[in-house]
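Dear colleague,

As promised, here are the two records you asked about, laid out in our usual form so they can be pasted straight into your sheet.

NAME FIELD: protein one
SEQUENCE, THEN STRUCTURE:
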Amino acid sequence: LFLLFFPPQVLLLACAEDLECVPGFQQKVFYIEKPFEFTEDQLVLNLKFDDCKGNNKLNFEVSNPDFAVELDGNLVALRNVSEAGRALFVHARSEHAEDMAEIFILEANEKRGALKEILKLEGNLGIPRQKRAILATPILIPENQRPPFPRLVGKVLRSEGTEGVKFRLSGRGVDQDPKGVFRINEINGDVSVTRTLDREAIANYELEVEAVDVNGKTIDGPVSLDISVIDQNDNRPMFKEGPYVGHVMEGSATGTTVMRMAAFDADDASTDNALLRYNILRQTPTKPSPNMFYIDPEKGDIVTVVSPALLDRETMESPKYELVIEAKDMGGMDVGLTGTATATILIDDKNDHAPEFTKKEFQATVKEGVTGVIVNLTVGDRDDPATGAWRAVYSIINGNPGQSFEIHTNPQTNEGMLSVVKPLDYEISAFHTLLIKVENEDPLIPDIAYGPSSTATVQITVEDVNEGPVFHPNPMAVTKQENIPVGSVVLTVNATDPDTLQHQTIRYSVYKDPAGWLEINPTNGTVGTTAVLDRESPFVHNNVYTALFLAIDSGNPPATGTGTLHITLEDVNDNVPSLYPTLAKVCDDAKDLRVVVLGASDKDLHPNTDPFKFELSKQSGPEKLWRINRLNNTHAQVILLQNLKKANYNIPISVTDSGKPPLTNTTELRLQVCTCKKSKMDCSATDALHISLTLILLSLLSLFCKSF
């Protein structure tokens, strides 16, 4: 079990029995192969110590408290030990001598190494070969130890004696948080742990130990003391990234990877405590095979294991499978801890089924003149309703030359909604036959094609309805001169009945006549005037008067058609021009005697309007007081010939248009002569002084008549 390697210098000493006795260990360095476990009371090796004076009061101390050296020099294990570290130190002391021996524990692949490699390993162990006063070998402590505490876990040795010397320990876990986890016996160097350790919280403690005198002054050190917490299998594997959902296309080849399951174990990843193995515990549903999938025990990859034919979404009990996945540590051994998660696998649809009409021929009936949906065409498709492999696209491939029909897909039911978009005419065609094709939004897979069931015929019957008569033309237009005599004929309307097969009669009536100017003969449709047509009427817009007429057939019930008549009215000179303004004011001392600019307007149209002719009525008296000057076709200016006294004056002015014959209108312009002071016009007294040449003449004439 154990291999001993001796340096050449040791072998030379062993052969020279007659050499002088050298106090101490006869061999100071040992190399042993690490076993799977040191068992209780197992002999590890034998150490030879000789102080050359009888070894009186010989005592041995071992750096690992799980080992001891008996008086005969046998190094034995005190209990079962799986982790002893990479080295053990044995300190021997008698009345006359003391010495230190080192035992290096090698892995199996290191046991045949050359001496220089072994010496190199010693350096890698962090154990310098120079002489040291303090020897602090690494300490290994299992996590989750149970009370009682404190518990001895290691020992620090000093090769130069301990009289008057104390050990002092420091670092995280001693005087740094978490404080008080470890402590050292300052006299004999025993290292103890005071509580249960958790490797997942802290895996390593890097401490320092030093030797101090009674005054606390450092004598040796500090020397590093590494304490490693040995992992125990105290954490179950956990699936942290859920929910776990995978997709695989139906018909996929055997061995297609669906998804990967990955669990986490907080234990030491370098040990079997975190070595995970995966397994499928349960599959739901179990058809068509209870083993539809396989999981790679090491990687966690889930793959399909059934043939593509069994992976048929349309024949499955459900396109969704749920797998209960177990992750077990300890490499899957029975003693391993387990964690579970559910993997949901969805079988995705591909377009491997063409849509098919539920019947070859559909019937529909529609009234003529009506638009809208007339029939819903039903199809069946075994593909997934949530995909384009199921959604239908309809098209009319024959029987629709006038584009009177359209078909659209109902997104909820997938039915084809056939609609009339242009009203049908029974008298033209009472029957229509359409050929409809249905396809999917997504293309079919290469080995599937649309068959005869993907087309259907729709027979449409058009029902006759009593349609209203139709005016020809509509709207109707005529031009007439305004003021034509009452009873004049405007025009004769013409309406026909589309129901040519019913031989119905038509009567006419006035529907809307805003000004009440028209009448219509109910039998022959002659429209005449009942009043004078006035182009200037508020019912006339842009010289056009609009009226509506009805044509009513003799059906049961009767149907009505509406016709619109636009009468364009030509203008005649039937409106006299008007003058504005009719009031003007002027100061009695005004220097500018241009009193006012007058304008004229006429409701008629050109040429019955301007240019206008402006004239003053004949002035009587010894002298003329004003005159009027034409400015342009529509305006003239009144000018005083002299300043007048404060009073009101009425000036008769006549305006004549350019019509044939022309029309004249005489209007009195009221002129107020006011007193003006400091930019203020006072016309208050003018009302009492009302002077009008016309009124004076009339008054004199009246007095003259009474005298006779």
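NAME FIELD: protein two
SEQUENCE, THEN STRUCTURE:
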Amino acid sequence: QGPDMPLSRLRKAIEESCPHLASSVHIRLKLMAEGELKDMEQFFDDLSDSFTGTEPEVHKTSVVGLFLRHMILAYNKLSFSQVYKLYTALQQYFQNDEKKPGVDESDMELTSTEELRGKMEKEELDVPLREEEISCSGPLSQKQAEYFLSQQASLLKNDETKALTPACLQKELNNLLKFNPDFAEAHYLSYLNSLRVQDVFSSTHSLLHYFDRLILTGAESKSNGDEGYGRSLRYAALNLAALHCRFGHYQQAELALQEAIRIAQESNDHVCLQHCLSWLYILEQKIFDSCVLLEHSVNKSLHFGLPYLASLGIQSLVQQRAFAGKAANKLMDALKDSDLLHWKHSLSELIDISIAQKTAIWRLYGRSTMALQQAQTLLSMNSLEAVNVGVQQNNTESFAVVLCHLAELHAEQGYFAAASEILKHLKERFPPNSQHAQLWMLFDQKIQFERAMNDGRYHIADSLVAGITALNSIEGIYRKAIVLKAQNQMSEAHRLLQKLLIHCQKIKNTEMVIRVLLSIAELYWRSSCHIIALPVLLQALALSREYSLQYLASETVLNLAFSQVRLALNILHMAIEPVLAHGAVLDKGCAMFLVAKCQVASAASYTPQKKIEALESAILNLNEAKSYFAKVDCKEQLRDVLYFQARLFHTLGKTQERNKCAMLFRQLHQELPAHGVPLINAFK
């Protein structure tokens, strides 16, 4: 199926499956290549004799028999000049191998059956003589070219790391097109390859060439009758709209989509119209939220028997309603209905997308345990189908999303080594030049940022902001404000947060709006304006409850409790349980620290005996908070806990324990000065 592999690799492949045959093959090839033309003639005569006799060596109807007969017929049809050309090509093939035995042995190591059956190995691409080998082998046959294109297209979809690199693949495609410029499928693969490197010009050029060649060659007309020409035109316009949408050219995308809709309506093509409707929703949601289009698209897709499109519509509808604050149980019911479609029609790719979607929804709602369960479900699943050349569907976007969430969940619990291992695995599965690499890049930067902030290394955190901004501008601005706040640049941090708040409200990014409001409230505390912080926190609490963001609601309640410390113990029970169950280690520590503060504040009105008991209970809670902070190496919070403990031990008259805490506090305070900001003046 593939083109001719070098002789040394052919021998190695034969040795692995049938060792005693390898030397015979080499001897026969050497005999023909170093002999005369009659030796090759003799070889084909010997092949014909294999079918004769009462007990032939090969049966005519067997797989090998059919192949040999096909080869003999092809040889018999050759003219004398073609026979001579075949013989000289055989000699050249053998001589090329004899000239460079060292290179072949070192560079032709077989690592997997996929690489053996594929067009070429990545190691081979680095060998300078590769171009010579291609030029010697000449143009590929139609079947060889089709096999190569289908293999590479399958790899690009399911396991990009095993496909050729963009530059090497483009070189191979250019070589194919040199011999056959009207090969439409090669132009389409060139389009997919250009998308990998975000090349707008080349991808548009290749896509247009693909549909031009499809129309010119009449391939569509042969299979679809008179409708073939029009079908190519409308799907060309639809693909062009999708391409412009991918690169953010929404105006051009809308024009191309209108053209596709017009042609599809003229041809009464309902399937094409449903695809157009789906893309119309994607374009419209950039301007305003419209569930009507999407619901209509799902109903029509089901009516016309398009389960794949219907399922994608349901997924989009669930995502939109999750951002709109719908209850989690209703969303999960909708996803359950789409899962039935997936299993019924064996849509394995959509099963993966559905599980990844559930993971993200549980993360949005702050249920880390449920998110972890869904992530593990997807990672432990085997694909329903082994796609071409034995590649499993495990390097898709769904797996990238789930692994990123898994890394972040481990980092939140203080398991930084495990998070690093997951990110290392992500880097291997999705190299920096692959299309899903931006996902792990962002999560990697965010985890590094959190570690640097916890450790008080604000200069390192500040250096990471540029990388985060390049991948996600909103996250980048938010992190910059956090760094400025930590560096006591209050006015600058407040200006950035206000600007970000207006932008997030405009684009309806509710989760970020709440996080920004919490950060603004913290700025007010640091400026000793607790009263001004209250309405900001109440606004954040109202939003988090309206949009069912339970974890953010719990965090907001803790912040409210800090603002009203003396009343806090009465409302703390509302938030402490979800935080301890699903929260990050840092948030658990902050919650326990707040409980201790509230206990101390409430103890002021107690009798002497009850006051001592309350303070001792607060010390125990501070120990628990200290263990959480130590787990994530959060030195700033550790310093505050030690300061608070020293004060409590002093009140209880425990001098030895007080001195120990004071000594540890002094060590941390020298390492991490407070920059003139009063200690213990914020919830986090």
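A couple of things worth noting about protein two: The mean pLDDT is 81. The chain is about 80% helix and 0% strand.

Best,
R.
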